[in-house]
Amino acid sequence: MQTTTLKMQSAPRTRVKPMRNWSRLPLYVCLTILAFVFIYPLIYTILASFKTNSEIFSNYFGLPSTWHFENYASAWVKGKIGNYFLNSLFICTVFVVAGLFFSSMGAYVIARVKAKWLVSVFYFFVAGMMIPVHSILIPLAQMAVSFKLSDNYSFLIGLYVAGGIPYMIFVMTGFMRSLPTELEEAVIIDGGGLWTIYRKVLLPLSRPVLATMGILGFLSTWNDLILALLFIKKSSMWTLSLGLMNFTGLFTTDYAGLCAAIILVNIPIIIVYLFLQEYVEKGLTSGAVKG
Amino acid sequence: MDRLKSRHLQIAMFLLPALLFYAVLLVYPVLRTFFLSLHEWNGFAGSKVEYVAFDNFKLVFEDEIFWKSLKNVMVVMLLSIAIQIPAGLFLALLLNGKWKGIRFFKAAFFMPVIMSATSISLLWKFILYPGDGLVDGLLMKMGLEDSIRAWLADPSINLYTVILICCWQGLGVVMIIFLSGLVSIPDAIKEAALIDGANRRQRLWFVTLPLIREAVAINVILLVIGTLKIFDNIYVLTDGGPNHATDVLGTFLYKEAFRNNRFGMASAIAVVMFLLGFVLTLVANRAMRRESLDG
């Protein structure tokens, strides 16, 4: 007994250091192969977006023989991706600003004001996280018909805001509860009210959670298909998801153009992710891990 | 007293915008769905909404496409869990450490998560293009012509193709949640196991796994909820076809409501989906809790 314990104790100390570089080699090889499987479809699409149609279907791994940048021009102008890009950008921006503003106001009083009824309000909001989008589609369609809300960005953005509020309030409330109270007390002594505290203390301190929720909200709205599909019919008002889906119908043979369009749609998302990797990952897991 | 009143009024003003959007565009529609599931309505403005009791549910349960869709959803759910939990854990174990390149690998596996389901589906449709797409082309070059199938059109395999694509897209989330579980294991426990002479497999089985049970539970529940409402991928990849081979509850509901104008029946499907999600989440939660008590 005694000897085995001793052996185990000393083993890692002598073994780990000199072998460090070589012992990782299988790990690197394994990960590289796996990462290749994950990324190759994307690389393939990028390369295909610069090829001609016939080259796409004959040259699977090589670089394009000549780089056809005009595929992008054609997707942007003829495929109207530029138009849909601006539509999506507008919708997402308004949604993020409105969603963050309304949710942070709500989360602020729930987290910082002591009142029993606010606890019930909190649970009322959080219950909304259980609602799947499919279970509200039909009444929304009914609303759209009777109030003529189809092809109306305010309605669509309102739907995104309503859908985003439960998760935003849930995560923001958790964050704001953990903030120190000293600064707040200083404002109260100076005679400031709720609004002053919210604007001067809570909002600046909540920047990290606002960023996380903003990025997450932006991504999910940028990627949404079903709500846009149901409530935006006019093709000049389509979002990127709709434009992309109909791209195949319009130009059945232009695969290079389709690839260029796919890349154009995802470039902003990938850039956002690469620069703000931690925020994106935290946003996706913060609610899950706490709940 | 007056000051107290004005303070409550002030608080209410802070809650009002969020409450208004949430109540009008999320809570009211859910309640309305329950109401509509007991009524018949053809979707046109001004047409009658007629009370029909449980007729819509009867229609749903007598429809064989409903059962097919339900079966497909269950297959997607179970296979997604069976594939993504071990695969995600495997990736997380490989990436749990501090060394050069970790950020790159994490980003590589996470990239498909942030891309839209629409563009991912179109991308795969293109890669699986019959005849000269990337997959068929490669198989042809390797002399495996016989194994080429109509990946998205053959009803005996296309559901599995769709499932694999969904797993490819979703694995990053599972991995990240496992990683956050692994990071939270205290070093002291790992060292204690090492000192006690536990080998690699014993450490994984008796130390790591029990300690990340929470992460397993979260992943399972998220997968259950996520697969139950799967829509985008299937809508773009196969539109539920051919002959409903890949229809799921989400596409079934969409078609009944917005192609066949049977809004009452579609509402009943929505209610079934809502309740199913509720029950499955409870069951998954219970099962996971139970397990952690036994351990």
From TrEMBL, chain A:
Location relative to the cell: Cell membrane
Chain coiled-coil ranges: none
UniProt-listed InterPro entries: MetI-like, MetI-like_sf
Record domain ABC transmembrane type-1: where: 85-276
Listed CDD domains: TM_PBP2
Pfam families the UniProt entry points to: BPD_transp_1
Keywords: Cell membrane, Membrane, Transmembrane, Transmembrane helix, Transport
Residues that span the membrane, as ranges: 25-47, 84-110, 117-141, 153-175, 209-232, 255-276
Topology relative to the membrane: Multi-pass membrane protein
Main location: membrane
Stored SUPFAM superfamilies: MetI-like (SSF161098)
UniProt KW Cell membrane keyword: yes
Source superkingdom: Bacteria
Record flagged with keyword Transport: yes
PANTHER family listed in its UniProt record: ABC TRANSPORTER PERMEASE PROTEIN MG189-RELATED, ABC TRANSPORTER PERMEASE PROTEIN MG189-RELATED-RELATED
UniProt similarity note: Belongs to the binding-protein-dependent transport system permease family.
Record-given protein name: Carbohydrate ABC transporter permease
Protein source organism: Cohnella silvisoli
UniProtKB/TrEMBL annotation, chain B:
Membrane topology reported for the UniProt record: Multi-pass membrane protein
Keywords assigned: Cell membrane, Membrane, Transmembrane, Transmembrane helix, Transport
Transmembrane segments: 12-31, 73-95, 107-127, 159-183, 204-228, 263-284
Location of this chain's protein in the cell: Cell membrane
Pfam family, one: BPD_transp_1
Domain of life, per lineage: Bacteria
UniProt keyword Transmembrane helix, yes or no: yes
Family under the similarity heading: Belongs to the binding-protein-dependent transport system permease family.
Name of the protein in question: Sugar ABC transporter permease
